Amino acid sequence: MSIAPLSGPGGLYSVSVQPRFVLDSARVGWRGAYFTDIVGAPEGIVDHGHGHYCLQRGLHREARRALGQREWRQMPAGLSVWRPGDEQRFEWRTGGRSQFLFIAREQVAAVLGDDRPLGAVGHHAPVRAPVPELILDTLQADLAQGSPAGSLVGDALVAALVAHLSSAPVRRAGGLSAAARDRVIGLIECRLAGAVTLQELAEAAGMGVRHFGRAFREATGRSPHQYLLHRRVEQAKVLIRQGMPLAEVAVHCGFCDQSQLTRTFVRQLGTTPGRFRSLPR
To answer: pTM for the full model?
Structure first.
């Protein structure tokens, strides 16, 4: 099943005053999901129904009142989970920073393997939810770093979040066979310079997305995105030694630009590509 990235933000939610968009996942193109980090206007109106699951995390206290009502309610910081078909129709004031993660119903079904819905959380008032909030923090951090592993981190974290919010227990799946491991690694090697999704890797292994990440880590000692970045850096080392310009090395190894290559190189090896070039062989 092929699920395209969600487009946003106009097709995902509607507000009377547009926020300031700090960060979003549009460039990365997560499978069936879209994340945005915003600073909302001081006041405005929300009046829409959801076509997808919407995880809304308020990082500030906010006053709201339902449309047509007089009473304002104080909303704490925290998480709300809205299902497809749910409606948000209210005014807000004292707006501030919020994060939104939209997930397509088809993506939820692909992760869970059935059509069970995610639980609705925090409709009447946001709640603190440590695990989902930690996942959202990690998604935000990956995007802020330029997502050097492409969509793999986002795809994996969205799958983990869906599994956490589902009501069914996680059953341990079988491990990755040597043949399946080799198929996945072969696909990664073929796609070092391009994009590869978690779904494609899971399909190469003959497994569902929900269990693939753990099985791959047990078979290789690395998560899929860690393995991909390791191989990209190893390939970059070869090309740097051959004298290829660093900007070209970045393109050939799947990085969006030279600065992303440099950041990843430093995190993995503790030195820059330029210094690495000058080291004795």
So the answer is: 0.86
